[in-house]
Fold each of these.
Amino acid sequence: MLSQVNDSQHTLRKAHTARSGSSLQCPVNELYYFQDVETYFSEGVQKWREMHCTAHYDIFLSEVSGLVHTFPQLVYHQDTIVQSLQNHLLVPNSTALEPLLDLVVQLVRDLQKDFYPHFHRFFFITTGLLDARDPDQLEWVFTCLSYLFKFLWRLLIKDIHSVYSMYSPLLEHKKEHIRHFAAESFSFLMRKVLLFDCFMLSSSCFGMLFIGFISSGTL
């Protein structure tokens, strides 16, 4: 699935370059320049407003719709937006999971490394949805996680020990498809680690895991 994730082009790429990877470092005059540039998140909100008319999504929309139109707005209100996304992803039997998971991805694309402090919480919330029997829900979750790995891998490999501790329960999960996805996505990160020489296999657990990936053909 990770190999199918492709990064599309967008006018905000200029804003991201100007920010030097961090919205908080962007000079005021550059934020002013981008004040009328629509964000990925705003585009996603509008798309799902037209495609997904459910009560659950409407409630979420009422909380964030006035906060996300421009890039400076999104940066300023990011904590509120993050909290709203997390709250609604935890709603039992939500009918808005597909748009919510997609909007998590759009938020990552906008905030880039500023999103990373929220990654761990989103990871646990999202993987908590994997116990569902609905194949559509599983696909939404896997797609969301795949994009998160694609957009955040540079940060994830610097935090690889923490990431591995998060992954351990998934690698040992009772459901085969969850174990397979965990192995695939973690091997994606391991390839990045090896490619950029950011990590040494210094512990036996990592060494055994890596050997297992090689022997199974995952790497």
Note: The chain has one domain: 2-162.
Amino acid sequence: MTTPIHETVFLGGFWFFHICTVGFKVKEDRNRMSLLVAETIWSEIQSTRSVSDDQLAILHILFGKNLERATRIVDEGGVKKILGQPSGRSIFQVVGESRRKEEYLCFPQHYCACYSFFYDIVNRGEQLCCKHQLAARLAVSLGTCVDVKVSDDHLAHLLAKL
């Protein structure tokens, strides 16, 4: 297998680049499919407000150790949904697991302010999402997040810190 890659690099960089692009596309498609499966599971959990062992097993396959950490955060009541009034806009505030108990602002499907989001997800592409995003998704699906109503001005102030 090493020889063909070496030969294509030697004969012209285009084919090597093409092989890398194809590999990236496969990983991107796999991630997209994993997120679609996860979305189906989140919807099922939300409809019953409970999670089965089978659903947990599938989520664990998709998210690994981050799911375990997220369940601890949810069990400890570490997820708040900050709701702006009167707009109804929202963001989640999720407690970290460190001794400092830092709180991270996140949009469960798109962004988290934690270091892991930038390092493991954005830069390295090793995870689909961080434990804070998972905790927010799980808490919403189970109906266990704490709703905190704030003014739209206060919400804007929180968002400006991102």
Note: Confidence is low (pLDDT under 50) at residues 1-24.
Amino acid sequence: MPSGPCSFGWPERDLCCLSDEQRARLALLRSRYEAGLLRLIAPQAKLQGEALVATAHVVATLLNQLPGMLKALPEEQGVGLMESMLVGGIERTLR
């Protein structure tokens, strides 16, 4: 399972315990991560502006949440399902 996106899970879960400065830093890091992720997986994306930002946020959120949602499945099956869902959604959305 991907390890990068999961690193946002614990700070987001405990957001109420962070200071305003820590929350602002986390938001900045997440937006940079999302922008870089989308450039990496869909460099030819035709979406622009807020639609592209929203797409990046959804993809990052899915990468963060899917491992937990699919943990009941055998690892190989869970990874395959996660890949299929993400690749299919990305291909259709970013055409």
Note: Residues 5-93 form one domain.
Amino acid sequence: MGKIFFDTDQKIQSKLLESKTETETILFPESYLKTLTLEQKKALPKRILPLLKRYQKFLASQRRINRKAGKILYQKNRGKMIRMNMRIDCKTWALLGVISATHGVSRCFMVNYLLWLDDSKVGDSIDKALNVGCPPFHSSYSYVWHLDLAQNRIIKSLRFHPNPILVSSERKRWLKIPSKTNEAKFFRILRF
């Protein structure tokens, strides 16, 4: 009997061209857009990369926003949403996609979440703890979506290199993260 060979090393691969931009559509709450001037609305696409630089270590080290690995969380109960077309470079869009997928949320949700973190001044409190002495981005990122059919589990994880984040017990002591009860309250507040 003959053998059948399958090529399981298939990949989709392309270059990350920083100079190339694509038009992407992001949904924003109408209530948020009403608070912005015309200049601030035009500057929204340019804010995404600096927000990723500022918050990506925070997002990589914190509990995931969506606890259900098999679902993607979209904005809900936010009132009327307005579509905005933006020109965003491929590298920024790809990095936003990896971080969003790791947290189990849409890119639109993550952009709004980053804006909310920044407007809430969360970055001011973490800049000294997480962003000093480290490059703004890691050199490589891997998003792993593991489906274990035998154990009936879905696991989403983010791996990056180099990894400057301390191991869990050391990190909690160093950052003085509050108890599980207070941490749960904090994340309920952060979930909009």
Note: The chain is about 45% helix and 20% strand.
